[in-house]
Design goal:
CATH architecture: Alpha-Beta Barrel
Family: Belongs to the TrpF family.
CATH topology: TIM Barrel
CATH superfamily: Aldolase class I
Largest sheet: 8 strands, parallel, barrel
CATH class: Alpha Beta
Number of strands: 10
Catalytic activity: N-(5-phospho-beta-D-ribosyl)anthranilate = 1-(2-carboxyphenylamino)-1-deoxy-D-ribulose 5-phosphate
Shape: globular
Organism: Pseudomonas triclosanedens
Structural class: alpha/beta
Number of helices: 7
Helix content: 25-40%
GO molecular function, one term: phosphoribosylanthranilate isomerase activity
Radius of gyration: 16 Å
Enzyme class: isomerase
Strand order of the largest sheet: 1-2-3-4-5-6-7-8
């Protein structure tokens, strides 16, 4: 198995972005969804990105954003990858001049392979926990056995991951990447540098 990639999502402060980078994160996530307690402004986003060292990717998370809103953000903020976390159609995810990943909220009875096949241009798929009315960031894990074997697309595992369970998650699911937010926080949007280091250490130990 190749090294699992690690994304620390919901970054709101420069110091947390730097702590994630220093600990070995491959990517950070910035949330552009006003209803989220982890949402950032364009000003915050620009400051965080300017402070990052090279080779750390910046992912922008959007939930059912209009093309106008998304375009304005992309004009102002240098994002490497877009993450669509709402009910976006394949057409709504394309045409921005950036690669994208699509988040899918998983529940029993889902045909994950069929849902993945609807987004041929997506670079990967983030599998998160389904909670009615909540697009993500629930802090709850889902039943990993619901993920079918043999998926031919990169899978990013999210939902309730912590330093305690991420090693087991990697061993069982063998994802391309893992994504954590609440599992390494002291409060919503405020990361705990020690938890970030512990999370990444557990990821490396599980490889």
């Amino acid at each position: 198995m190749s090294a699992v990639r690690i994304k620390i999502c919901g970054i709101t402060r420069v110091e947390d972005a730097l702590a994630a980078a220093e600990a070995g994160a491959d990517a950070i996530g910035l949330v552009f969804y006003g209803k989220s307690p982890r949402a950032v402004s364009i000003h915050q986003a620009r400051a965080i990105i300017a402070a990052l060292p090279p080779f750390v990717s910046v992912v922008g998370l959007f939930v059912n954003a209009s093309r106008c809103e998304l375009g304005e953000i992309l004009d102002a903020v240098q994002l490497d990858l877009l993450q669509f976390h709402g009910d976006e159609t394949p057409e709504a995810c394309s045409g921005y001049g950036r690669p994208y990943i699509k988040a899918l909220r998983v529940k029993a009875g889902d045909d994950i392979a069929a849902r993945i096949s609807q987004y041929p241009e997506a670079r990967g798929f983030l599998l998160d926990t389904y909670v009615e009315g909540v697009p993500g960031g629930t802090g709850q894990a889902f039943d990993w056995s619901l993920i079918p074997e043999g998926l031919q697309r990169p899978i990013i595992l999210a939902g309730g991951l912590t330093p305690t369970n991420v090693g087991d998650a990697i061993s069982r699911v063998r994802p391309y990447a893992v994504d954590v937010s609440g599992g390494v926080e002291t409060s919503k949007g405020i990361k705990d540098a020690e938890k970030v280091r512990a999370f990444i250490a557990q990821c490396r130990s599980a490889e």
